[in-house]
Every structure is written in C-alpha cells, then in structure tokens.
Amino acid sequence: MCVVGHDCERVEDVIDDLVVGDGKDPNRFLTTTSHADESLEDVRAFADVWIVDADPAASVQEVKLSA
Predict the structure, then answer these.
(1) Per-residue pLDDT tens over the stretch 23-41
(2) Burial of 54: CB neighbours in 10 Å, binned 0-12, 13-18, 19+
C-alpha cells in the first residue's frame, strides 16, 4: 500500500498498526510505503511495477481520504 500526501507517514503507521499489529501473526503482512514529496502519478507508476502474488489482471486502485 502506497500512501501519498500530507501526513502520509502517520497514515502509513496507522495502517501498519491495524493490519500487522505487533507482528506476532505471520499471516498479517502488508508492504506499505509513504511518499510525502512525490506526485500521485509517480507513486502510481511505482505501484504499477511492484511485483506481488496477486491477480495479474488487477490494477492499482486509488482511495482518497478526506478530513
């Protein structure tokens, strides 16, 4: 999961805490990155080339959080 924009480091930490928790359960894993000084376009391009064990037909999805 890539997080972009204002306060993205904090949002990344919250996601890590919610999904991974204390790290004791090896089945609860998620790769996260934060990109405070990068454009959405650059981060989407980064995410598009990330190789994972997922459906190869799946595409990057954008989710916007609002205050």
Answers:
(1) 899 999 889 999 999 999 9
(2) exposed
